[in-house]
Amino acid sequence: MNDITMKLNADNLILSALKEDITSEDITTNSVMRTYQKGEVELICKQDGVLAGIDVFKRVFEILDDKTEFEFFAKDGDFVKNGDKIGIIRGDIRVLLSGERTALNYLQRMSGIATYTRSIADLLKGSKTKLLDTRKTTPNMRIFEKYAVKVGGGYNHRYNLSDGILLKDNHIGAAGGVKEAIKMAKEYAPFVRKIEVEVENLEMLKEALEAGADIIMLDNMSVEDMKEAVSLTAGKAETECSGNVTRENVEKLIDIGVDYISSGALTHSAPIMDLSLKNLHAI
Q1: Does 136 qualify as catalytic in the annotation?
Q2: 0.90 exceeded by the pTM?
Q3: Residue 30 maps to which CATH number?
Q4: Most Cβ neighbours (<10 Å): which of 77, 84, 172, 220?
Q5: Is 210 a catalytic residue?
């Protein structure tokens, strides 16, 4: 996550998270640290996993005090192990204490997503299928969570509702059918936008292909029907498999031959990675 992205899209979210945690003051820190004292604290890994969110972690402290100093021994995408010292943070002890939880919340959450994503992406290695995330993200955390998916080796589906056309079951119901929904989307959408349609059976698939859909999402279909769907599509459109995809069941989907597998679990069910700030002392 580069500086421009951080300043344009993330700073206001990080500031909001800090304001959530510090309404007026950090009364605990202010009670034990009345004046400035420089100190340092170590960032320790307490669980094996893939690191993601170092720049966001840094930004929390920089927003509180731009004089905060950092020394890191690992970067986003690195696999780190329990007991590894990932970095040292130096600065005003009051800042180190007040920013600790918010900074760790971001780093733990993002690293957990990257770790879970890596575990599924590794299973897909050697196949043509790409692993995608979804919009099933924590409110106000999407930019961070989708970044973590990329760090873990996955790919981003559309970022938000303005980013792509995906006609799902309720859109199709509102339009009066698959063909009608695609026809209206083609009339309304800019020509540079692809049209993706969610189908639940082979009849809907045939309608979507006849109407000229660019991407077909095979939603909660049986493995046998998905294989038939890929065969029927035969290069007429790209295919995506979706519906309760997890690390436990993804292996049975590998041989279907779809272009993409999307998994909401990457962002809504990944456990955090255990990280901690330890050994704070004055310097």
Answers
A1: yes
A2: yes
A3: 3.90.1170.20
A4: 172
A5: no
pLDDT band at 224 (very low <50, low <70, confident <90, very high): very high
**What are the E-state strand segments in 147-283?**
165-167, 195-199, 215-219, 238-242, 260-262, 275-282
168 is catalytic: yes
Name the domain count of the chain. Answer: 2
Same domain, 26 and 97: yes
**Among 130, 135, 158, 168, which one carries the catalytic annotation?**
168
Residues 154 and 246 in one domain: yes
219 is catalytic: yes
Has 214 been annotated as catalytic? no
Q: Which of 101, 130, 158, 183 is catalytic?
A: 101
CA distances from 223 to 132, 239, 255 (A): 19, 14, 9
What per-residue confidence (pLDDT) applies to 156? 97
Phi, psi of 4 (to 5 degrees): -65, -50
157 lies in the same domain as 254: yes
> Which of these is catalytic: 55, 145, 219, 240?
219
11 and 145 assigned to the same domain:
no
Question: 215 with 261, same domain?
Answer: yes
Same-domain pairing of 95 and 50: yes
Range of 29's domain? Answer: 3-120+271-282
Whole-number pLDDT of residue 4: 80
Question: Mean pLDDT throughout 31-37?
Answer: 95
Whether 16 and 92 map to the same domain: the answer is yes
pLDDT > 90: what percent of the chain? 90
